[in-house]
Amino acid sequence: MADDEPEITALLKRMGKGDGEARERLFSLMYAELHRLAKAQMQRERPDHTLQPTALINEAYTRLANGKMDLQNRQHFLALAARVMRCVLVDYARARNANIRGGSRQKTELLENMAISEDRHAEIIAVGEALDLLEKTNSRQAKIVELRFFAGLPLEEVAKIVGVTTRTVKRDWTVARLWLFQQMKARDG
After folding, report:
1. pTM to 2 decimal places
2. Cα-atom radius of gyration of the chain, to the nearest Å?
């Protein structure tokens, strides 16, 4: 992993300038890690979900590759990939929810291992909207929630990506979950 860090950084710079060859090479180098992120997110979905990890990777990568960005390194790329995967799942939930209009809102509790089933699409949307609000007030906490909740990464890996200690991640994770719970409670109440 660390052996290819300089190559990945160079590919990210080239991709940011529109180099399609760099984009393809980066995709092949990062596929295993992207698949791990997608698999972690899809484990929260129902088993017969129509969106599979490979489709989630492809959709997220398409969005990443088509955007103008200045990515610094592997960790920056993975953090952004986790965010884009979250957006894909929220967009998917919104589309599915649009077909199911109606129904009552239910109390939502943000847990580390919260399973996302078809009947929880409204909750995914609500969490996504609350996370967007959190990002405006504390972007680090929002990134930690994305990496823990949506990407399913362990505390140590989140700490490395965010560039803080594991202790700080634990504290921010606890505070962010409380803040999000309050937002969800206010929305439902």
Report:
1. 0.61
2. 17
